[in-house]
């Protein structure tokens, strides 16, 4: 049975003390939740990982980095390796977010390298994919998503695939307030699951967690999460306020 997950992506927000406060608030709220129907993860800036891990340790909330380098170690000033991320106590890394693809020119090939290093270091990967508005409107969105997933992930073994969570994030819905309708999201989630089934078989496809991301909030999460192939969310803006984030966590 696949897991439901709600993961926050704080992006480049909060100082370390602010992040620690937010993590404490989420951790306490999750601890008090009697009937939690999903795993909860917070994705935080590199600088926050160790301090936030100290807050979360022993609790129910998982920890993710928002990126890692596509090199193992060495002369890459300013980069942070998968081994470094893992050494903070984080269990997950978010890779392939559209902001990284767009502003930092991350390609499917680079992401493949990052995925391999993340898995080698025992991290689970929340792998983002999704189309631009132009690609949605010209009808090429399924091809784009298929290339993103197959070129960065389909070299993995079935055993490695168990450490992959997919996040479908239509770029036109990220931070815009424009959510994909639950039917639009479900269509793509079912397409992704079918793609995974073709490569890894029906059982692994059924076991794969596929998250939706893009202006998800407490008011629209219940309808999105009710769809059969939507297994939770990757949450940007609404993960920066513990109450909003918890409104999504409890939406199942
Ligand atoms: C994201 O960037 O991963 C995201 C889903 O952002 P938002 O929820 O703010 O649209």
Descriptive account of the structure:
With 252 residues, this protein is an alpha/beta fold. It has a single domain (5-249), classed as Aldolase class I (TIM Barrel, Alpha-Beta Barrel). Helix content is 44%, strand content 15%. The protein has twelve helices and eight strands. Strands 7-6-5-4-3-2-1-8 form an eight-stranded parallel β-sheet. Helix 3 (82-87) links the parallel strand 3 and strand 4. Helix 1 packs parallel to helix 2, helix 1 runs parallel beside helix 12 (242-249) and helix 5 (108-120) crosses helix 7. The longest helix is centred in the last third of the chain and has 19 residues, at 182-200. It is globular and about 45 Å long. The two termini are 16 Å apart. The mean pLDDT is 97. The structure holds phosphoenolpyruvate. Phosphoenolpyruvate (PEP) binds next to strand 8. Phosphoenolpyruvate binds at residues 9, 169, 174-175, 213-216, 234-238.
> Into how many domains do the coordinates divide?
1
Q: Describe the biggest sheet?
A: 8 strands, parallel
Q: Please, what is the CATH homologous superfamily?
A: Aldolase class I
Distance between the termini: 16 Å
The name CATH uses for the topology is TIM Barrel
Work out the number of β strands: 8
Secondary structure layout:
Elements: E1 5-9, H1 16-32, E2 39-44, H2 49-56, E3 61-65, H3 82-87, E4 92-95, H4 98-103, H5 108-120, E5 124-129, H6 133-137, H7 141-153, H8 158-161, E6 164-168, H9 182-200, H10 202-207, E7 210-212, H11 221-225, E8 232-235, H12 242-249
Parallel strand pairs: 1-2, 1-8, 2-3, 3-4, 4-5, 5-6, 6-7
Residues 9, 169, 174-175, 213-216, 234-238 line the site of phosphoenolpyruvate.
